[in-house]
Design goal:
This protein has about 140 residues and is an alpha/beta fold. The chain has one domain. About 40% of the residues lie in helices and about 20% in strands. It is built from four helices and four strands, in the order βαβαβαβα. Strands 2-1-3-4 form a four-stranded parallel β-sheet, with helices on both faces. Helix 1 crosses helix 4.
């Protein structure tokens, strides 16, 4: 019997989260192989449709790794992302999808371990939920 390995998409800001990813790499840490990171200039540029389309395209879970609210280079970008994540979470039950399949993590630039831990936490959460109900 094979173990379910969820496919996860992580949207990552080019500032704090990206810096944390670079620190993680320098520390010799790596993300789980089933996490694909897509870098954005700012998570505030993320559209709700990006989250929904990732799930529709076969991702079992999607997360956003953004700045701390008080350190966003674009002032309110991560706050916009948080509103979009919450909005998508309210839509998912109507599609038969658990809201926990979408999440947001606040990152600090120098915290490489935090970046890897967030990805690993998402994998574990989605692994516990099982495959996305949107998959055939």
């Amino acid at each position: 019997m094979s173990t379910f390995e969820p496919q996860i998409i992580g949207y990552c800001c080019a500032n704090c989260a990206s810096s944390a990813a670079q620190i993680a790499e320098k520390m010799g840490l790596s993300l789980p192989e089933n996490v694909k990171v897509i870098q954005l200039p700012c998570t505030g540029r993320l559209d709700s449709l990006h989250l929904l389309k990732a799930l529709e395209a076969g991702a079992d879970g999607v997360y956003v790794a953004g700045c701390q609210p008080d350190s966003c280079q674009f002032k309110h970008g991560v706050e916009k992302a948080q509103k979009k994540v919450k909005y998508v979470q309210t839509l998912l039950p109507a599609l038969g999808v658990e809201p926990d399949r979408v999440a947001l993590f606040h990152m600090m630039a120098g915290k490489g371990q935090q970046f890897v831990d967030a990805a690993s936490a998402m994998v574990e959460k989605i692994r516990a939920l099982g495959p996305s109900p949107l998959k055939d």
